[in-house]
Amino acid sequence: MLPRKTVNSSILIKRLSDNHVLNISLKSENKLGHGSFGCAYQVSHPHQQGLMVCKIIDLQGKSKNFHLPPRQLLRLSYREVAYLQKVGLLIGYFHDKDTHKMYILMKYIKGRPEYSINKAKHPEVEYLSFCALRKLHRTGIAHMDPHQGNFLINNTLEYASAIDFGLAKDHHFFREIRDYYKFLKKRHESVSTFMLHHGLTISQLIHFYCDEIQEHIRNNQWQVARQLFIYSVIIICALTGAGTLGVASVIAQRIIISTLLQGLSELVETFEDIYELRAWNQIYSARTQRYYQLITGLLVVTQGLLFALNLYRLTSSANVFFEECVANTTPIELANILTQIKPLVQSLLHWKAFFEKYLSSENTICEQYEAQIAQNAVYLPQFTAQTQIRHQRTRAISRAYAPPLNPH
Known about the structure:
A five-stranded antiparallel sheet has the order 3-4-5-7-6, covered by helices on one side. A three-stranded antiparallel sheet has the order 8-10-11, with helices on one face. The protein has a two-stranded antiparallel sheet with strand order 1-2. By secondary structure, the protein is α+β, with helices and mostly antiparallel strands.
């Protein structure tokens, strides 16, 4: 909760699109609600079209459940600003270093929270929220907190929008799987409970992905054909063996090994996300929190071992390459070096985030994210064509994926 002095006050926030300064008035009667570390107000301004939301985060506050250090809250706040910009909702922001507050000005989304809608009468709303979550994944964002209060359904029950990116992280496959698990867990007594009148079903999931794959293939035929050809060649070469295809088989096997190492690093990172958040959660006893801290530490050590392994494989291949390249060309070792760069980059990104969370100063965090936000462009959706709508399920998907699809 914010202190009383911030109610019925005003704040100056620079609009990022043209650097125009907006004087935003915060009135207690326009308060939309409060969350773990702050609250949100509905606001407007004559020089800005449409309603807006001003979210205020107390960077030194402690919620009932989570006691995060100020540096962690500052980092999460800047990351939320960056993600809002990525999905095209950000208008501006202001970090008040004197009062230790972050003011985030974003577009207002009309709609009702998913939990406020009677699912017995409207079972499709859960499916609409799932469409919105999948759209978020396609922008490169894992929500990490997909409960029913973080999805707004429009008044005609045609599409949903995801909100509150306070715990969001960069997307990869295992974080996407975790999002789906939490999405179902927060809506059903058991993740294995799939009843038609409760909304999301296995059949709907299959239909959803079939529609999405069909749309993607229709709009990106040459790209999909090229990817299928490349993957097929790699798998066939790897399974055939070096005795038949020689260099091609060895290179294919090393590509697969490097891909598996990258996936293992992402899997460990996902478990680290889970146990790190539990370690800060005050609903657990001090003993349980220490247990989760220990698990988090072991996962960090595992990431360190994976990084050392990737670095060792890369340096070994480089040494062999430079020793042999004097005499002749070594395409196998050159290809081996190139295939090992990607898992090493994944490990480096993890350690960059780790040092940012625990070792970077607040000034470094501010400078880094302010520079990133200043040069980022507004996100445009991945798919570039509108599909023909024939039934309600397809219509829900199409509207959830939100045109405008053509930047021109």
